[in-house]
Specification:
Layout (H helix, E strand, L loop, with lengths): L8 E5 L2 E2 L8 H6 L10 E4 L8 E2 L8 E2 H7 L1 H5 L1 H7 L5 E8 L5 E3 L3 H13 L19 E5 L3 E7 L2 H11 L5 H9 L2 H15 L4 H17 L4 H13 L5 H5 L2 E6 L4 E4 L5 E13 L5 E4 L7 H7 L13 E2 L3 H5 L14 E3 L8 E5 L6 E3 L5 E7 L1 E6 L4 E5 L3 E4 L6 E4 L4 E6 L2
Antiparallel strand pairs: 1-4, 1-21, 2-3, 3-6, 4-5, 6-12, 7-13, 8-11, 8-12, 9-10, 9-12, 14-15, 15-16, 16-23, 17-22, 18-21, 18-23, 19-20, 19-22
Length: about 425
């Protein structure tokens, strides 16, 4: 009797990380599961060794960790081209992120900075799990976040003149000299000096930080151009009382996203997610340098070395039809992943490790290109995957699947459904 063919897709069971800043309800509402009473901050989809997804191929041996399945058959799970490009590991990590309060202010290194930092800490004999360890691996960590509703974030340094105006409006002795400095000296000199001043040299005391928090509430209540930003900073100050990183937060742009809008975070860009639900796709690295709103280690020298002190407003991204001009502008080949017109929209990103797109299937079958490994997440409605060998899989809201590279055609249907697709760039 012939051995049944293994389907090219299988459902994932994904771990949830219960960080303190997470929402207790947003991920349960998306996945249609009961709340646990704990904050559910991140749903991880991928093969990260600290929390891999489980996949059940229906072979009778039950769900197994995705990282182990990849290690046992790298070319079968990732494809020969994927192994050649990225080695025997999935190069991206896909998440649902649900923030009830602010995450830590952070920056990610470039690949060259990560390699140099990792080598230096290895030479100093700092254990990988040590609290003061900064570089956990040799990789960089570009990110892309797409909002699934109203979403707030901090991203990149605000133009110097606007930050000076904000600091003057707060009228707090701790900040007033820095407003004058931003008006009369290059921002590339003032911003790193100000970060070192508040994070290391002086570290403002509780009374000074309470004055800043009070001024934030006043400006937020008075209205004006900085009211929304100051309300967001005030909430972060309330959630992290006495944290000098609150001052660092004042230097960053306050960004509000609507559903379907996205932010791309490249190396060196300081950022923090404040509130909301979104899908996040990133290179599979743990390298983070923090600059506040955290109890974790802050390496001030390392932070200043990797941070980009360019100023300006960050671009808010939207998706474009696959193969249209945004892809061409990045030098990418047209993404002919679907047979139907207007089904896939791609978010622009220069990262080679990942590519994020949004799918809106119809009742007419559209062919899925399985040239690279990918994860599909259903965020609304119901979609169905069907192979020519007769396998099928229904994805309901909150459900996800791993698709291996395969020559076997796979069709997608699902009128009214919305899915997000994570694959390599």
């Amino acid at each position: 009797m012939p051995t049944p063919t293994r389907p090219p897709f299988a459902p994932l069971a994904n771990p949830v990380r219960a960080y303190a800043w997470g929402s207790g309800t947003a991920i349960p509402e998306l996945t249609r599961t009961p709340p646990t009473g704990e904050p559910q901050a991140e749903l991880w989809m991928g093969a990260h060794p600290s929390a891999p997804s489980l996949r059940d191929d229906g072979a009778g041996d039950g769900p197994r960790p995705l990282d182990r399945l990849i290690a046992e058959d790298p070319e079968g799970e990732l494809g020969p081209d994927g192994v050649k490009r990225f080695g025997p590991q999935l190069p991206f990590l896909f998440k649902v992120l649900a923030a009830e309060r602010a995450l830590s202010l952070q920056v990610h290194p470039s690949r060259a900075q990560a390699e140099a930092g990792f080598a230096a800490e290895e030479a100093r004999g700092i254990p990988l799990d040590a609290p003061q360890r900064t570089f956990r691996d040799r990789g960089h960590k570009p990110e892309l976040l797409c909002a699934l509703g109203d979403f707030e974030a901090l991203c990149g340094f605000r133009p110097a003149g606007a930050t000076a105006d904000l600091l003057d409006a707060l009228a707090v002795p701790l900040l007033t000299p820095w407003a004058a400095a931003l008006r009369h000296r290059p921002a590339g000199e003032v911003l790193p000096a100000m970060l070192r001043h508040v994070l290391e040299d002086v570290r403002p005391g509780p009374a000074e930080l309470a004055d800043v928090a009070g001024a934030l509430r006043r400006v937020a209540a008075d209205g004006g151009p900085y009211a929304a930003a100051c309300a967001a900073y005030a909430r972060a100050a309330r959630d992290y009382p006495g944290d000098p990183g609150m001052v660092a937060a004042l230097l960053l742009n306050h960004v509000r996203l609507r559903r379907g809008q996205a932010l791309a975070l490249d190396a060196g860009v300081p950022h923090a997610y404040l509130h909301g639900l979104g899908v996040e796709l990133m290179a599979n690295s743990d390298n983070v340098l923090r600059c506040g709103l955290t109890a974790k280690h802050i390496d001030v020298d390392g932070l200043l070395a990797v941070t980009s002190f360019r100023t300006g407003e960050p671009p808010v991204l939207t998706a474009s039809p696959a193969g249209s001009s945004p892809d061409a502008a990045r030098g990418a080949a047209p993404a002919a992943s679907w047979a139907g017109e207007g089904i896939e929209e791609v978010f622009p990103s220069p990262a080679e490790e990942f590519r994020l797109s949004r799918l809106r299937p119809t009742a007419a079958p559209a062919r899925v290109d399985l040239a690279a490994p990918q994860i599909l997440l259903c965020t609304a409605g119901r979609a169905r995957l069907r192979s020519t060998a007769g396998h099928s899989l229904d994805l309901l809201q909150g459900g996800s699947a791993y698709l291996r590279p395969s020559a076997e055609p796979v069709l997608l249907t699902g009128a009214g459904a919305e899915l997000f697709r994570a694959t390599t760039g």
